[in-house]
Design a protein that fits this description.
CATH topology of the largest domain: Dna Topoisomerase Vi A Subunit, Chain: A, domain 2
Strand content: 5-15%
CATH class of the largest domain: Alpha Beta
Number of helices: 8
Largest sheet: 5 strands, mixed
Strand order of the largest sheet: 4-3-5-6-7
Number of domains: 2
Helix content: 40-55%
Radius of gyration: 20 Å
Length: 198
Amino acid sequence: MDNSNLESLDRLTNEFSKLPGVGKKTAARYAYYIVTSPKEQAEAFADAILNAKNTIRFCEKCGNFADGKLCPICKTRSEETICVVKEPKDVSAIEKAHSYKGSYHVLHGTINPLQNVAPKDIKIAELLERVVKGQTKEVILATSPDVEGEATAMYIASLIKPYNIKVTRIAQGLATGTQLEFADEVTIARSIQDRREI
């Protein structure tokens, strides 16, 4: 049987190919796997996707993923130290290193004039609001060490310093241009521990 003209298989392959890092061949392999697996397994997979999409939202305080108003980290940790990251996946990367016990703030982007992303387009105002009215003593800037991450860190530091709050930057054990989510746990742990004041 020629599988190349099956519309439903093509559609499934096309949907998988939209995932980050998934090429056409991998997408086809995923589609074939789903089609040849037991129906219960395919239903469980589809249900997990819909359930996650319907229940996961952003934490009202820090912007991390949550299944309620607050994420588990905001429910249990002090705001004396706030680690600022670009995306929720960066929170996960730092948590895996088991070296940081404070709170987080997720910006949901970095300043990028070439893509028309200005400070007002990311969660900088919300960070300032938390820092000014809270008991924060230190803000750790943990954006990736690429051009946009560095520019965002410097901009945030300039806004927070007048409030006499310590502002630090993760150490550059991370290679320039490295995305935080792809760094190993040891490198992330060292970057947090060896952070420097800016």
